[in-house]
Structure formats: structure tokens, C-alpha cells
Amino acid sequence: MASAENSIAGASEMPPHFDLGEFVRRVLAEDIGSGGDVTSNATITTDARFSAEMNCREPIVIAGLDVAIAFFRALDRDVRIRKHVADGDAVAAGTILMSLDGNARALLAAERSALNTLQHLSGIATLTRRYVDAISGTGAILLDTRKTIPGLRLLDKYAARMGGAENHRMRLDDGVLIKDNHVGVAGSVEAAVKAAVAANTGLQVQVEVDRIAQIEPALAAGADRLLLDNMKPDTLREAIAMVAGRVPLEASGGVNLDTIRAIAETGVDYISVGRITQSAPAVDIGLDYALQALPA
Predict the structure, then answer these.
(1) Which of 62, 98, 148, 254 registers the highest number of CB atoms within 10 A of its CB?
(2) pLDDT digits 0-9 by tens, 266-296
(3) What is the pTM assigned to this prediction?
(4) What letter would DSSP give residue 223?
(5) Residues assigned a catalytic role
(6) 234-237 long-range CB contacts below 8 Å, 24 or more apart?
């Protein structure tokens, strides 16, 4: 089991409102089709057993273990599974994530759906942890964005949380974020913020600014938070001095592992990074046949 220092404490709660059963049914239907696993059906008897170990082939941060398990249980209700790690754990290459023993046809039919999901989500968690580690000690908090794979928003943001990020708004209805196109249509930052405040949504009004000159008009109009877009560290420091703690400040735009530390050290409160969900590569996880079955 991974040590507590390598885990995100209390992070493994599944996202609220996520329908795990519906997700599993949809993904299995996509992979199995209407004809079933013709290869396994042709080569393996109906009562054959399959014992296996799922392991990682590189250092990773785990996310989605229970989702992966749900695929196996959907096709074999009696499968025996032993988890050796938990979501949020950082583990070394070669770590056994879980052991399984059950009906061979069922587990092999579920294998790819389980692995695809776990590899994708753990990839997000792994990349996110690299960003979190890069700003450790600065006081800045890493945020995700809405740049997620369509249909996987809840899971992708869950994985980012397993990596140590905090979730920014989940949907368009749970946060007011005025961006450049809103400003363009409204006519100015000040006009957009005033309209948002007047709408009285009960939500914080955050506005994106890309020039120092937009800061005071945004604050005067009632902005609760500023997103400082594509500003270099020197400009960020100027913005921080001007705001002087009146509202929280978030840096965004063009952030990567080479630049995030310098951005964090300016003193911004938050840094949002779309790459952690948009561009995270899947990690290498495999399911290997084991001669020894799980003990009864």
C-alpha cells in the first residue's frame, strides 16, 4: 500500500451525481457490441477461471480504481477482487494495483474498458500531481478547467482532484466567469461586470482581464475575483500590488511545467491549467494472467 505521504487525504470520494452504472453500461456496450467477445467465446470454455494482477509499468498517481472494478463486477457479480492501493496514491512502477479471480470470459470482456478508463484517469492524476509538486510551498492552489473530454467531465475533474488540484466550476451554471468574448459583446469589462452583478445570480462574479488597465474598472464595477490572463510574472506582480488583497487572483493562460513555478512565486492565489485534463497522456497499466488464484 502506498504511504500516507504519497496520498491525497480523503480524496477518494466519487464525484456527486455521477451515474456509475450508466457509464459502465454505455462503455461496455461500445466495446462488446451486439455479438459479444467472439474471441473469448471461441477459445475459452464457459466455466474457465481467470486469475490476474493489474499493475502499473511506470510511476503513477491512481484515479478511477473503483470505476475499473465496476466493469468487472458488471459482467461477473461473483468476481473476487482485492485492492492493494487507493485513488490518490502515488505508486512506483511495478506496483500491483489489484488482484482478480473470476469467470474468464467475463473478466476478459471487461478488461479493455476497465484499463482504458483507469489509464486515462490515472494519467490526469499523474500529470496533475507533477504540477502540484512544481508549486509546492508557494501557497498557490492549482485549479482545473472545463477543458475536459466531452462526456467525461465529472470523471476528468475527479481525477484532477486525486492529483491534488481543486476543481474550478464544473458547468456553466455554477459560476459566473466573464471572458474576453463576453467583454467584447458587452462593450467593456466594466459594462460586463455591472451587468453580471445586476443579474443577482447569487454566484461570485469573476472576470478575465488581460491588461493592467482593466483591473480598476473591473473592481469598481463589483468583480469578486480576477482571472489574470496570459500575463508574464512581472505583470502579475504589478497586478498583485495594484489589487492589494481586495479580491482573490487567478493566473491562467500558457501555463506549463516550465513556467508554473515562476507564476506561483509572484503571489497569485490560484493558477488554472487546462493541460492537466486536456492533454494528459494515458499511463501504462496492464492486466496479467496469474497462475495462483486469490485464496477463498
Answers:
(1) 62
(2) 999 999 999 999 999 999 999 999 866 666 6
(3) 0.92
(4) -
(5) 112, 147, 179, 208, 229
(6) 236/263, 236/266, 236/267, 236/268, 237/266, 237/267
